[in-house]
Amino acid sequence: MLLGTVIGYATATIKHPSMKGWKLSIVQPINSERQPEADPVIAADSLGASPGQTVILNSDGKAARDLIGHDKSPVRYFVIALADE
């Protein structure tokens, strides 16, 4: 699991069929001091996080495919919780 800050949304006119209907958030991973760490990632977001909100990400590819409901989905990251401040 990773802590991150939503910095925006991704849109695509062409994407894998399994991603149709999913909100894709751009999330900047952060450390325990809430400083940026690593490169931003794209995460499937069923919770509706807003830019600036802190979220908890899961990076388990199998769990992501189970959530999406497609065995061949390229999704790796997904939002599992909105973090309290």
Automatic annotation (TrEMBL):
GO cellular component: bacterial microcompartment
InterPro entries: EutN_CcmL, EutN_CcmL_sf
PROSITE patterns attached to this UniProt entry: BMV
Keyword GTP-binding: no
Recorded superkingdom: Bacteria
SUPFAM superfamilies the record matches: EutN/CcmL-like
Keyword Coiled coil: no
Keywords linked to the UniProt accession: Bacterial microcompartment
Pfam families named among the record's database cross-references: EutN_CcmL (PF03319)
Subcellular localization, as worded in the UniProt entry: Bacterial microcompartment
CDD domains attached to this UniProt entry: EutN_CcmL (cd01614)
Name by which UniProt lists this protein: EutN/CcmL family microcompartment protein
